[in-house]
Amino acid sequence: MMSLIIILGVVLILGILYMIFRVGNLVSIAKGGVVDEKSSTANKVNAALFIVFMVGSLGLFFWYSFSHFHEYTLPVASVHGKHTDNLFWITMWVTVIAFVIISIVMFVFIYQYQYKEGRKAKYFPDNHYLELAWTIIPAIVLAVLIFTGLRAWNDITSPASKDAEVIELVAQQFAWTARYPGVKDKELGKVSYKLIDNFGNEFGLDLSDKHSFDDFKSLELHLPVDQEILLKIRAKDVLHSVFLPHFRVKMDAVPGMPTQFKFKATKTTQEMRDELGNPNFNYELACTEICGRGHFSMKMPVVVESQEAYERWKASQEAWLKQNPGYLDKVPAALKEAAMIQAGMQKDPGATVAEVKQ
Amino acid sequence: MATTDIHLHQDVHHHDDHEDHEHHEGNFWTTYIFSQDHKVIAKQFLITGIFWALLGGTLSVIFRLQLGFPDMNLDWLKPVLGGWITPEGKLDPEFYLALVTMHGTIMVFFVLTAGLSGTFSNFLIPLQIGARDMASGFMNMLSYWFFFLSSVIMFISLFLETGPAGGGWTIYPPLSALPQAIKGSGLGMTMWLVAMVFFIVSSLLGSINYITTVINMRTKGMSFTRMPLTIWAFFFTAIIGILSFPVLFAAALLLVFDRSFGTSFYLSDIYIGGEALAHEGGSPILFQHLFWFLGHPEVYIVLLPALGLSSEIIATNSRKPIFGYKAMIGSMLFIAILSFIVWAHHMFVTGMNPFLGSIFMLLTLIIAVPSAVKIFNYVTTLWKGNIHFTPGMLFSIGLVSFFLTGGITGIFLGNSAIDIQLHDTYFVVAHFHLVMGSASFFGMMAGVYHWFPKFFGRMVNPTLGYIHFWLTFVGVYMVFFPMHYIGIAGFPRRYYSWTNFETFSGFADLNMLVSVAAIVTLSAQFIFLFNFFYSMFRGRLAPANPWESTTLEWTTPRNPGHGNWVGEIPSVYRWPYDYSKPGAKEDYIPQNIPYSETPESNLPHENELIKLETLNGDGSIVVEGSKH
Fold first, then answer.
1. ipTM beyond 0.85?
2. Per the CATH hierarchy, to which homologous superfamily does domain B2-16+26-269+276-538 belong?
3. What is the CA angle B249-B251-B252, rounded to 5?
4. Where in the cell is it found (chain B) (predicted)?
């Protein structure tokens, strides 16, 4: 019933609009049609509206940009992020100045040179100096922007230092998993997608590689502050993309092609909470490459902590092998004892002796 | 049918003997459906394009409802969307992705490529260069019907139980290759690929025709440097299309192989749905390279015709020659060339070699220079003009404004260091919707309003045109400008909802504003629709040259028949922008007026040309009605 009334209402309104349109048409015909459209009021109204539009929209633009600045800018918490943010704002100033000047000039011309009876437009087909000027000036400005951008890009993409903290991020529909190299050998073990199974080996860990024994899994991404971090990124099924908005980090996760991104976090979670005055603040990792139904929910919590706290956290984590002892069968017999020791399933006799001696 | 065809071709080659062919009447089928007349084909493209634009716009409003009003109960959409509305009255997340995908596909290919280029290249090329029809009317007809076939297939895919393609309009594999990954990659994706193959065929048939016609069929005196900028734009567009669409074809074909025949072009090391797939050695990045090798030129395939149309309209309605005619051609040429070597700026953070990133950043920012030149030239054309705000002119001004606003954000995104943060956020959405989507859409609208008198022999209602313009102009800005802020805040695109993230928990207000603006903007298009169809039948009869324009199409009869000109095709003696020439009686001199008839306004070097006009039979002045 309600929808019927709505439909009737819509039909009625459309009917009235149509009648107004018809009456308007008839009136204009009765008046003798349009004699000279150019000098009609419509032309003046349109010209004036462009000025109203220009003033209104530029006003809104500046008002919102300044008054809501803290809502749309994310705090930055990485070294290179500060740099790219600077570039962003430099580019912003350069382009906004150009944008405002060109807009004002254009809309003022539009208003100023609206049709006037008896005036003739200026025959001005070209002017090489002008054209040269506005080819060269943008070219120079852009060259400067390119140059600064290139330098930043080369820094960001240069190889990571040897002592960078390596962490592997594995993407799958629709979750992130991190793999840490473990505290004993500090190296990630080999993986192969063919070894992935449904029973626990979600990384496809190759247990014939001795580096894999102490690797551990985490569903939270823990990062040390002020230390170079190298994220090794891979995907199991489709494309995903690692996005750490506060660290200005983004890199796709590609099945069959491991990618990486190096950066240095500058603020711990706690520091950021204090800075923002928000005790509930948390860093987050999001997926930014469309990956299917759950794309929008593919989140990983991120914790940045002091280097000591980070080391303590790492030491407290159980090796993956310890959590999945069934996979000991896959370890070659010769390495089995080393595996038990590395995974923390059995005390290292040698180490105990050494500790006692100390 | 065949006889008419042959006669027509004779016509084209011998301008002189034509009389009896102009008024041949076909039956309904040959005149309106399987027509070979470029004007009818153009209208077919236009009407189909309008249909797709409405559908594409409606899809966007549906997903904007989800984004702007996440708590809204959408049960009332059940009669239309059926099972895609969950029992809780929400939009299904997978269908959301399908909506986004189809919106992009429809708008980019079916509206702004076929609807824009197909309509105006077909309509204006023969009319403005002085030809009776396209080089091959038959190929031209095929071009439309392949497009139609493609449209039908794409349309049917909307009604599949598993939904249409849902992996984004860029259809990146492996998502688009694996039906296990998303439902839309099943039959929906297959139909998407088949439809696109037909689309590519259509586009190539069209482009070959446009190029051939422009090169071979210009009328007497219509040298390349006397061609209107519209024709230059269509010419470059067709060349770009011919060079880039086959690459998309190759990309799609390899994807078909991967999907259906077990090859591994794009797939490698995949574990999905509890099993490791056998594919090894492929690269998803390869697809991205191939896709964007078309995808980036595609931006200019969409944009250049719009720029061409608006150049013409702005010059006509400013009553001034377009400023820097040669610079405009040069910048279009430069853009056309550069458009092929910037594609990887879409891939800065895909894991591509960073050195490649540097190169592509350099090339990308270079392309900003010719674009800037175009904007400056438009503004200078307005300077000291005598501007007449027809609806076409309003939309052209809108285009320049969008091109500026959206183009400027390209400088951020082309900078790879800045792009790290902005990539795949709403900043990108704002950028390309303004610079490519809205600018081109406004170019198309400008074209429809400006050439409506030639299309249908009647005038549109200007007042409704003004209302349509202002609602759409302000509406588009209200939709896309706020997205810059949302993007700077890091909001990723193609998200069904942001509430899972604290970081992206704000901006409910802006998102609501965007959605409301989108609904208003879409509603405003119905004013246009009414105006369009009403004026087609009941509009005021159009005068021969309603905008007092210089180009050849306005020398044809009010409703030109197949063959365009009754009698001889006019010859061309001057460039198309003799507006407000000092000394001239009127403020425009059509291209077909010889210099010998305008001694009062000729420039010194033009007086020299008078001799050539009278020198020999071929170049002689053709006085109307006379035969030789």
1. yes
2. Cytochrome c oxidase-like, subunit I domain (1.20.210.10)
3. 65
4. Membrane
